[in-house]
Design a protein that fits this description.
The chain has 590 residues and is α+β, with helices and mostly antiparallel strands. It has 14 helices and 26 strands.
Amino acid sequence: MYQSIGYDKKNGVMHVWDSELGHQKFPFKPYAYLPDDAGQYVSLDGTRLKRVEGNHKDNPNAYESDINEEMRTLIDLYYESDEPSKGHRDFFFDIETERDENGYSTAEEARARITSIAYYDKAGQDRRVLLLDEERRLNNKGFEGDGYVVEIFTSEAAMLTRFINAFAEIQPTVISGWNTDNYDIPYLVNRIKKILGAQALKKLSPAGIVEWSKSRERYKIFGVSSLDYLTLYKKFTYTELPNYRLDTVAKFELGRGKVEYDGDLNQLFATDIHKFIEYNMVDVNLVYDLDDKLQLIPLARTICHKGHVPYEDVYYASKYLDGAAIVDLKRNGLVAPNKRFRFIEEETEADALAGAYVMPPVPGLYKWIYDLDLTSLYPSIIMSLNISPETKVGVIQNWDEECLLRPDATQVTFTDGTYAQDIRTWLTDNAYTVASNGAVYRTDIKGFLPTILEKWFDERVEFKDKRDEYEVGTEMYKFYDALQLTQKVLLNSFYGVLGLKTFRFHDLDNAGAITATGQSVIKFSAKVINAHYAKEITAAKDEYEIEFEDGSMQTYKGTDLIQTTDGMKPLYRIESLDEIIYPYNISVSV
């Protein structure tokens, strides 16, 4: 399986690093599928297609012509397997820079010197700090720290050269650190250019290519995947903290933080160089320990292999879900459509997607509390209603959940102007489902989206069962835990991207069907549960003590008539105690 990929557009050459085959490179040849009645391929919508070579990105009738070069290559080479690759060399690092008279330099300017570089080569179990000591305050031969080695350099050029050589010798497949994509990597690259020249950068890459990626707005080192741990943490932990500085996150997750000191790093470097070295190394150790606990790098890898995308695309659900869907269709002999957003009119405000429903809490002290957790609500709705691009029949105008209960609700009109005379018969005879937004779906065929989600749901159950066969913390436990968490991320992400116009299978009707039905499920569940427990409460006792706001008490029997919102009813027959109307707020004791 692949470990890294990079497309050299200038020369039209694709570079792939495989865990077994090593570095491969070959010319990339784009292709697409075009309609042809005699074609041997079939699209999701049933159109016959033929494969044609060349660039057809701007052809609105083309299929799969807009898949980017790297994803296209990974899907074609590895579509038969989703297994994550092995044999990685994870590399955690952190740089420290000095502050000049204008403050700390930006990564783009790389104005000030790099004073130290700490790194941990996980595979080689090597912890090391490269330190700039021009004044020779320390032994030039270096020394042993607390579990790490310190190397001393009297010039920044010598230190950077040593780092480049060590990096090339280690040949990491994944590099990580805290905010490395936005600071450490661009600062290091730009500083190396200034001090050693652009030619020196080539040694960082096994392909000799280090370039700025406009699409990702990051430097790309061919053959080395960058996974910024700050971004991974914010993306996949769903933890809300006052800030996301490394010290804050480490204290929350690990119970310990960065090395504390007075003043700024320039002062620390000048007054306590040993603590400065420790500070640099501890930052690296914290990030490694975070991953040892959270396993976000293995999670990122497994997600990307599901979607057959470069590891750097793990931050974009639309990309890895796009790849996962195309792969599933390819395995079933089908061709995916192009993204339509470039060829259709802009959506209006009227097309806005209904969001999730959050029931407002009613302040108070309650004895009867009910907690309902609906497993994978949105994926379950997609599977239950068979929501998919090819199963959508139409959308009923002005639909609501009570429509089928009204005796006069026989004729309905669709958004395209067509109508059905007898909605009940029409839905039943055709075995259609209808969502809460009025979207109607056929069930005589199983949609490809429900099929994918059902498979992922079953796989998650399987991975959780396998995980639990091993002791917590063991390598196999971590392996299967990462796999089951991957399935969870995939399942919970799919509904969201359906409302994203840049997603290949974007459809606001389908996205709205999911969220609107989710709202209905939650509201109806609350109504049923409240009605059930209201009856349980009123059936629990023959007499009821009601305390009024003024402190007075009155006793009622279950057969007493009580004033409610729709008239007088016996107390024990009301559906909800909240329906009772009194001139004061009351509490009922049972």
